[in-house]
Amino acid sequence: MTGLEIGCGLLAIGALTGLRTMTPIAVICWMTVLGRLPAAQGWTGFVGNRISVAVFSLAGLGELVGDKLPMTPSRTRFPGLAARIVFGGLCAAILASTAGFSVTGGAAIGVLGALVGTFGGWFARTVSVATLRTPDFPVALVEDAVAVVGSILVCRLFHP
Q1: Rounded to whole angstroms, what are the CA distances from 38 to 8, 47, 72?
Q2: Is this prediction's pTM over 0.70?
């Protein structure tokens, strides 16, 4: 993989974290446990642990449900924005380490992606609901699918 491909993948995993905070980390854990990503070493070793798979999968499922509730705060406000930034950087740093890329650089790219995904996702969802004159729920389901499938595809980029 070229540096540009790695950078685009890291930006993408950050952006997907901006859509759904826990989905990309859950997918990374699953892909590692299933052998679709190289087994993580050192500080990233937690992603290959079945407990991490369970914890992040449950958190991801909770987020998928919670996102549809009317009292859920906007992703662009604290603490949701902070969580997206942290996990965007974390996910990108993990993938960067599997590709031999700078972990710090990867984290920075992931944070940038998380900001793009958070605000771009909010804008796309808001405009889609208004333009299509549809309830928020079906648009949110499409966003869920993008986050899940996109995370899997990005992980496949790092370990075909």
Answers
A1: 19, 10, 36
A2: yes
